[in-house]
């Protein structure tokens, strides 16, 4: 049996820890690692993309939908920098992505010799958008460092970790006696230390749940908790679907221009925030918060808010909470009519956002309930966040507070790799789509069949409208000259069609989903009114 190298140990550790797909772009510093992937290609698939940013977004989408980690492989310097927007999106979205970066030869690190792809202090560059990072340059410690990376990604808040390995270290032989191990979550929850907060939940007369992203079990527990304590539920954009939108207690993403929502929040005596942060623009009407978070407490910088934090694995905390209160006399005084009236007010307010909501209704009507929708940063994406109903915990993906153009299409490809049997629909604008349109080649090469709907207004639409309306028509840098999107998609071998109206979109999207082929639907639109 040949000796085990650092590259072999890394690839085998990925497999042992449940990873069967890696996204990336090969390069000279990664040759020995790529050879190790080749040796294990019957157990782990390498999807080679056309840009490192695309690879990072695919790993992000894969992590979101699979509930497991995504994996990303890039060369150092420009490769890692190209991927950094995607890594930052995974960080803001609490998606676990295991980032593997090459490095220049060990003896040259920090010497500024102009080595190929050199960035002096590269690890410092990536630290703000990862929860942990490590330069692995010692064969004696390599396996421990790799295992620590997996331990970090499986515990606490799910966010990216990064390791970087000098090109001459990948082939280094490690100790023959080392056994590679699977890492698991080891988080616990101490009920006794949190009994006061549990009692606050029991005593609340007008409790309100505010829920972020979670997995299938989290969704089940959130729904049970809301029903048990009779609490209406708001969600973050990333939390859409954590309680099905057709549930009587679901109020969706809270609008910032709805007095009925503000009244409900201000009358609440306790907000129970589950793995999310309350938006800054609604904090001033919140009185008390009990938050359930996997690691450090959120900092709200509001002296008037009574804030308490239960720290631990969210599912463990929710399970314990349900056990403690299931046989307790609860005090919620909400009526079905009160919550229903707020739902109706929300529906009425968003119904006037046109033509956006007509397109949103067409998308929802054409898409099966299990569809995964990726909300791009564009006019229809904003409206989807407000009014597109979601029925599964992983049926909606945003770029969270990163809010970045270009994330939607490659993220959709990663989501489809994680869930090949579910429809995946990407909502994009014309400006954002061209950030990563080259990944249509990846989609066709690997048979990743996503439907992308490109709303084409020949502009960075928000900027253009604001320059018209807020800056007296002083238009600069916001108008775009685009290719023929239909012909562009067809040149890659995709199906493609151009339409104009919501009813046409419903018909063409339904047909595209039924065909289960890669498809681009271009929707020609004009400037749209602000949805806010």
Protein described:
There is one protein chain. With 532 residues, this protein is of the alpha/beta class. It folds into three domains: 6-166, Thiamin diphosphate (ThDP)-binding fold, Pyr/PP domains (Rossmann fold); 192-343, Rossmann fold; 352-524, Thiamin diphosphate (ThDP)-binding fold, Pyr/PP domains (Rossmann fold), CATH 3.40.50.970. Helices cover 38% and strands 16% of the residues. The chain has 19 helices and 18 strands. It has helices spanning 6-16, 31-39, 52-66, 78-92, 122-126, 142-154, 195-203, 216-229, 259-267, 314-325, 336-351, 356-366, 379-387, 408-418, 430-433, 440-446, 461-470, 485-491, 502-515; strands at residues 21-24, 45-48, 70-74, 97-103, 132-135, 161-166, 207-211, 233-235, 250-252, 270-274, 288-293, 306-311, 372-375, 396-397, 424-429, 451-456, 495-499, 519-524. The chain has a six-stranded parallel β-sheet, sandwiched between helices. A six-stranded parallel β-sheet has the order 9-8-7-10-11-12. Strands 14-13-15-16-18-17 form a six-stranded parallel β-sheet, with helices on both faces. The N and C termini lie far apart (64 Å).
What structural class should be given to the helix and strand makeup?
Answer: alpha/beta
Number of strands: 18
Output the CATH class name of the largest domain: Alpha Beta
What's the pLDDT, averaged over the residues?
93
| Domain tally | 3
Rg computed from alpha carbons, rounded to a whole number of angstroms: 24 Å
């Amino acid at each position: 049996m040949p000796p085990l190298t650092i590259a072999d140990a890394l690839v085998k550790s990925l497999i042992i820890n449940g990873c069967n797909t890696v996204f990336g772009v090969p390069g000279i510093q990664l040759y020995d690692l790529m050879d190790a992937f080749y040796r294990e290609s019957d157990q782990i698939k390498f999807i080679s993309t056309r840009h490192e940013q695309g690879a990072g977004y695919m790993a992000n989408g894969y992590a979101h939908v699979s509930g497991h980690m995504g994996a990303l492989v890039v060369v150092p310097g420009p490769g890692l920098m190209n991927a950094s927007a995607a890594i930052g999106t995974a960080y803001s979205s609490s998606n676990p992505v295991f980032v593997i970066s090459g490095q220049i030869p060990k003896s040259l690190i920090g010497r500024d010799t102009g080595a190929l792809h050199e960035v002096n202090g590269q690890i410092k560059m990536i630290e703000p958008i990862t929860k942990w990072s490590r330069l692995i340059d010692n064969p004696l410690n390599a396996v421990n460092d790799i295992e620590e990376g997996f331990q970090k990604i499986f515990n606490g808040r799910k966010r990216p970790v990064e390791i970087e390995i000098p090109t001459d270290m990948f082939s280094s032989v490690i100790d023959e006696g080392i056994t590679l191990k699977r890492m698991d979550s080891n988080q616990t929850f101490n009920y006794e230390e949190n009994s006061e907060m549990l009692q606050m939940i029991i005593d609340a007369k007008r409790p309100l749940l505010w829920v972020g992203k979670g997995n299938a079990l989290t969704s089940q527990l959130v729904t049970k908790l809301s029903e048990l304590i009779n609490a209406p539920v708001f969600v973050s954009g990333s939390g859409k679907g954590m309680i099905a939108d057709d549930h009587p207690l679901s109020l969706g993403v809270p609008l910032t221009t709805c007095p009925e929502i503000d009244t409900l929040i201000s009358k609440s005596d306790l907000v129970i925030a589950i793995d999310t942060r309350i938006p800054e623009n609604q904090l001033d009407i919140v009185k008390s918060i009990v938050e359930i978070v996997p690691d450090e407490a959120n900092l709200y910088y509001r002296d008037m808010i009574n804030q308490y934090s239960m720290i631990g694995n969210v599912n463990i905390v929710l399970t314990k909470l349900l056990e403690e209160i299931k046989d307790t006399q609860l005090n919620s005084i909400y009526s079905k009519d009160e919550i229903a009236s707020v739902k109706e007010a929300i529906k009425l307010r968003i119904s006037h956002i046109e033509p956006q909501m007509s397109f949103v209704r067409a998308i929802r009507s054409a898409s099966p309930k299990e569809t995964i929708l990726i909300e791009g940063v564009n006019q229809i994406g904003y409206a989807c966040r407000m009014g597109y109903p979601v029925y599964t915990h992983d049926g909606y993906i945003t770029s969270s507070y990163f809010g970045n153009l270009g994330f939607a299409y490659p993220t959709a490809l990663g989501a489809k790799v994680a869930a090949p049997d579910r429809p995946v629909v990407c909502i994009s604008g014309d400006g954002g789509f061209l950030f990563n349109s080259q990944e249509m080649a990846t989609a066709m090469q690997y048979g990743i069949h996503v439907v992308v709907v490109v709303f084409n207004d020949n502009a960075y639409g928000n900027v253009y409208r604001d320059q018209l309306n807020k800056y007296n028509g002083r238009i600069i840098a916001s108008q775009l000259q685009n290719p023929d999107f239909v012909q562009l998609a067809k040149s890659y071998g995709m199906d493609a069609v151009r339409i104009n109206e919501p009813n046409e979109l419903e018909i063409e999207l339904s047909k595209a989903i039924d065909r289960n082929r890669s498809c681009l639907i271009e929707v020609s639109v004009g400037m749209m009114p602000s949805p806010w």
